[in-house]
Design a protein that fits this description.
Strand content: 25-35%
Distance between the termini: 89 Å
Number of strands: 27
Radius of gyration: 36 Å
Helix content: 25-40%
Largest sheet: 5 strands, antiparallel
Oligomer: single chain
Number of helices: 19
Structural class: alpha+beta
């Protein structure tokens, strides 16, 4: 047989082998070849081919299973072929058989298990071929693959996933070629993604990662997910660590196994059933870390079979070769899982917390599956801003993995800091645009081989007093606004390229303002929710719009968010993060707010006090707090008249026991609190405000600035 190219899949490998072994002339030829010991034998004289003939009713009408590997597999004429299969495989295999009957197209190289009379199972490569005319029915070719061929196919198949569970399950399935039961046990640290460095036997703890075949096991027997008792962990680890070197070890019979375990409880936990058995234990070993020459044991595999079939030296070498190759894949999966967990922890840290009495928020974040390119850079956040406002931010950083996570964390934290400092959405995006460019130009960014250029972001700021939203968008998909009457529309601000897009004409980030009356629902999302390879992105946004229109004002918002994702989100496995934020606007009641627009005159401070005083009494603000609030209003208005220009806007907001005073003007000078000299006349007003309030600050508006201050009423 010609060597199979390394790029071939395991199924191609088996298909090639099948082409070499299938006889010309059906079952009769097979019988002749077996009788003569000719071409039907594998290397070393091991016959590996068997044939079963089936009628259209899928019952056996003839067979040739004389080769030694098929001992114990009974294919009596008239019996249903399904009787040879494990119960869980019957529906799938039956469907394959009927399809070949209908289409007369062969189905080749399916890895399949067959049931022996004693309850054990045999792993074969099964091909389903239409019977040669004029005969009707099927010819099922069964290959008990030669060990070296199986070894190559298994080594090629294992490691195609970066999921630890799938990798160990693939290993266990492959090990069945050497036994009747296979199990894989991994160190706890592998599951958590941490490095395995401690080799002391009293510290080793193992957890069962995979077990095949899938059957009903006796009570007390360890199945996947179960933790091995400490004694069992130490015994297995001690068995494979001899002379301080990990080695394969064989227990030739049940008596030797029971002597080693020396505990009926451990026997029930580790030995599959009450039949005579032998076991080979092979360690999963990787090379030690730099400066640590000793090999590191990630876990232990077990291969169980009947004691009369002794493990030969060649078989143990094959097993060690397969397990050694798998150990590298397990370690890669461990490293990937650690990175996946770190990025996921960062992204979940950024998810919005509970809303406030003016806005309700709910979010859903579904990361990419662990064996994809890595967790993406999607992020969404909401947080309160000064002046009773709320920020809603969504972004999508280019790329996957730790590089994207680092950029995502930096952009998210910078956006929050700038918004909290009083900058508007457009100004914040300008700063983020500069940050992305700087990140790409720095030596650190170049060394990491990662670029965040082309990342997108959308920022919305909700004012519950005016019931309006300011929004600015840097290349992100447009939000969807659902009005209280159930109508919905996309909020398409002036289009702007993504962050760091220096190749286009640089334009300022436009800020779009729209009304959001109480009961409105604002929907922010990332492309993973609406992208569909079979449809345009506009179609995806249209489907999202139709779905969110069905969210009723009385629906639980978090449950509604999950329903939206369930209806729109792609099927597993996820190749891009799915992110959704729903924000239901409640607004501030009109009786809890007041706004006055006053001319900038010398008597404006007195006028503001006369307007605010009766309102504070109606709000039942205590006398001391009321006097403090009036003094703060007076000082802020005086500063606005003295250092600003144009009319002065005074706004009061009551939120529980908190009172917010905000004074706006058309000036652009920033009030600064500085240490004054003893005889200075100026600057004392801000010191008064600083002493009487819990916090104060400045935010910038389209027409100037607004100085705000919060007091406890």
């Amino acid at each position: 047989m010609d060597p199979t190219p390394s790029s071939a899949s395991p199924f191609d490998t088996v298909s090639g082998a099948l082409g070499d072994y299938i006889p010309k002339g059906g079952a009769t030829a097979v019988g002749k070849r077996h009788a003569s010991g000719g071409d039907g034998e594998a290397e070393g004289g091991e016959q590996i081919l068997g044939v079963v003939g089936l009628g259209r009713d899928l019952r056996i009408n003839g067979s040739n299973l004389d080769a030694a590997p098929f001992a114990g597999v009974s294919a009596a004429p008239g019996a249903a072929f399904a009787d040879l299969l494990p119960p869980g495989d019957v529906p799938t295999v039956t469907q394959r058989l009927r399809r070949v009957l209908e289409t007369r197209e062969a189905h080749v190289a399916r890895v399949q298990r067959l049931r022996r009379d004693d309850g054990t199972e045999l792993v074969v490569s099964m091909s389903i071929l239409p019977a040669a005319p004029p005969q009707e029915g099927l010819t099922v070719s069964l290959i008990a693959m030669a060990k070296r061929l199986h070894l190559y196919a298994s080594a090629t198949a294992i490691g195609t996933s970066l999921d630890i569970g799938e990798t160990t399950q693939s290993l266990a399935q492959s090990l069945l070629a050497w036994g009747d039961v296979a199990a894989v046990n991994l160190d706890y640290a592998v599951w958590t993604g941490e490095a395995v460095t401690e080799q002391a036997q009293d510290r080793i703890r193992l957890r069962r990662a995979a077990l095949v075949p899938d059957r009903a096991w006796p009570e007390g027997y360890l199945t996947p997910g179960d933790n091995l008792p400490r004694e069992a962990s130490r015994l297995l680890a001690g068995a494979v660590m001899r002379d301080d070197v990990p080695q394969a070890v064989v227990f030739p019979d049940r008596a030797a196994i029971e002597r080693a375990l020396d505990d009926p409880r451990l026997v029930r936990a580790l030995v599959p059933g009450n039949l005579p058995v032998s076991v080979a234990c092979i360690p999963l070993v990787v090379e030690g870390l730099e400066g640590t020459p000793r090999p590191i044991v990630l876990g232990v595999t077990e291969v169980w079979r009947r004691p009369e079939c002794r493990f030969g030296e060649g078989e143990l070498l094959d097993l060690q070769e397969l397990v050694a190759k798998t150990a590298r894949h397990v370690d890669l999966a461990r490293q990937h899982q650690r990175e996946h967990a770190q990025v996921l922890a960062l992204q979940r840290r950024l998810l919005p917390r509970a809303g406030s009495d003016t806005i309700e928020v709910a979010s859903v974040y579904e990361p990419t599956t662990p064996d994809s390119a890595g967790v993406g850079g999607d992020w969404v956040n909401s947080f309160p801003l000064p002046g009773d406002r709320t920020a809603l931010v969504v972004g999508d950083v280019v790329g996957h993995g730790l590089g994207a996570a680092a950029a995502m964390g930096q952009l998210s934290m910078e956006a929050r800091a700038l918004l909290s400092a009083g900058l508007g959405p457009g100004e914040v995006l300008e700063r983020l645009d500069e940050t992305v460019t700087l990140l790409d130009d720095t030596d650190a960014g170049l060394a990491a081989g990662y670029s965040a250029l082309g990342s997108t972001c959308c920022i919305a700021v909700y004012d519950p007093v005016d019931h309006r939203v300011l929004i600015s968008n840097a290349g992100h998909l447009p939000p969807v606004l659902v009005h209280p009457d159930g109508t919905a529309e996309t909020v398409a601000a002036q289009p702007h390229p993504a962050l760091g897009a220096e190749f286009v004409v640089r334009e300022p980030f436009e800020v779009h303002e729209f009304a959001a009356p109480p009961g409105s629902l604002l929907v922010l999302y990332t492309d993973g929710l609406v992208e569909d390879p079979a449809a345009s992105i506009d179609d995806g946004i249209g489907r999202l719009t139709d779905v969110v229109r069905e969210v009723h004002p009385w629906d639980d918002l978090q449950q509604a968010a999950r329903r939206v994702v369930a209806r729109l989100g792609p099927q597993e496995p996820l190749r891009d993060d799915v992110t959704l934020l729903l924000a239901r606007m409640a607004g501030r009641r009109s009786r809890d707010t007041a706004t006055w627009r006053l001319p900038a005159r010398d008597d404006t401070a007195a006028r503001a006090r006369s307007l605010a005083s009766p309102l504070l009494r109606r709000w039942h603000i205590g006398e001391q707090a009321r006097d403090g609030a009036l003094l703060v209003i007076s000082e802020l208005v005086t500063n606005a008249v003295r250092f600003g220009t144009g009319p002065v806007t005074v706004r009061l907001v009551r939120a529980g026991s908190r009172l917010t005073c905000e004074v706006g003007d058309t000036g652009n000078g920033r009030p600064r609190l500085r240490r004054g000299e003893l005889l200075d006349d100026g600057g004392r007003g801000l010191h008064v405000v600083h002493k009487l309030t819990t916090r104060w600050g400045v935010r910038w508006t389209d027409t100037g600035k607004a100085v705000w201050a919060e007091l406890e009423g």
